[in-house]
Structures are given as structure tokens and as C-alpha cells.
Input
Amino acid sequence: MTDDYLRKSETAESDPFDIINRHRALFLIEEYDLEAQLLAIRGLVNRNSESDKALAEGIKALGAEIRKHTDEYADYLQDSWIDHLHGSVFQDAAHSMSAAGMLAPFIESLFVTIFARLRAERQPVDGASDDRAATLHDDFWNPHYVFEGGHRRRDIVKGIIQLSESIGLTVYLPESLPNTLSALFEYRNKMFHNGFEWPMVEREKFGNSIRQNQWPSEWFSQSTSGGKPWIFYMSPEFIQHCLAAIDEVLNGVGEYLSRSDNATLDRKAQLRDQEAQKQTYKTGDMPIV
Output
């Protein structure tokens, strides 16, 4: 475990209120050990990063060694340098696919579990007029679907966003979450359906998605061949952004639970006061003003 990882872990829980909210969210999802899962994900991300750095340093050292020779050995080193450089393209792709393959399912499972636990405690908002509120109870709490114009279609990203809005959770979530989810899940789908080297039409579609959705330029990098896109990668910045977003979601869900619990207690107190007032009127006692 690297010092950099430990610093990130300490920073993530430096705010006492965030710690309290995070633990409240983890208690809601107590069936799963999310902390252990995140430790495993961060650990592998860091090991892959160290491996990428080691390979880059090796390629750089080979380049320096080539310049020291002018004989056949230089040709041998040149071939080795090219092989290592070519291999790094695919190692980076493997590590990028690994990150997407861990982060996307984790986030999907996180929201599915959160909504399932909330379902046991809450009902759709009374009087809500959005498309989702008009659906059956089972459908309402299923984030795999989005509801538009009386119809449902499978879309985990829009389903998470729509359900969050319908139950008032959105204000407690990261503002960038819609973009983060759409970028992560679209990349995950491309990699898992097409492998490292996508058909050219899929490369062009993804490049268009980056531009049209205005995803930050630092979220993805790419290698090119013949001046055209070859392989797309999740950048280290985007991987860390996704991990930070998970922390923010846990903190936000905890705060949502706290606010919701306080509102419930206030409502119960109000109902008790109203009932006590009714009983007072029944006995003929007038309240003192």
C-alpha cells in the first residue's frame, strides 16, 4: 500500500461531519463491506499505476542505452525498445479496463443497494407528478429503468439520476454525478463489448460522445494510429475522480438520511401536538393563549 494511497484515505475522511454521514450510509448498507471493497479497488489501481511507471522508466532507460551504441547491439536494443513501447499501449488498456470493470459495477451495486434499503423505509413522494411517481411500486425503486412519457426503458445511468431526483436525494449528491456516470458506463460498455481495439465506428462514436457531452478533456486519453483514434484510456485523473465521487455519494446519502430522519421526527412531534390539542378540546379545556 503506497503512501499516496494512505494520504488519499486520510483526506477522504478528514471532516468529522463527513465521517458521521459516511458511517450512517454504511450502516444503511450493512449487508455489504463497502470499505473492504474500496480498499481492494484502490490497492489494485495503485499497483497498476506503479507497474505503468516501471514500464515507462524501462522504456526510457532503453532509449538512453540505444544512444550509447552504434553496432548491431544498438539494432537489438532498438527492436526491444519498439516491442516495449508497443506492449505499453496494451498494458495501459488492460489497466484502464480493469479500473472500469471495478468502478462501474461497484457504483451500480452501491445505488441499487441504497435504493433497496430506502424502499423498506420510504414510499414515493405523495403528490409527485413526475413520470416515475406514476409507476408501480416495484418499478419506482428499480434504478435500472428510466420512465419517460409513460414508458420505461433500461438505462442505469438515467435511472439512478431520475430516481434520485424523485426522492429528493439529488441535492446531496455530487453535481458532476450525471456526467461521471454517463462517461464511466459508456466507456465500460465499449471496453467490455469490443475489447481493447474497438471497431473504427465505435472509436468515432466515443470521440463524439466526449465532445457532445462536454466531458472534461482530462478524463480520457487515447493512442492513435495513422492519425486516427486507436485505443481510449481512462486517465488516472478520471479514475481518482470516480473514487472521490463514491466518497461524496456515501457522505451525501448519510446526510440525506440524517435530514430525512429529523424531518420524520419533527412530523411525528407535530402530529403528537395536534392529537394532544384535540384531546384538550374534547375535555372542554381551552388552550391558554
About this structure: Residues 1-13, 262-274 have pLDDT under 50 and may be disordered.
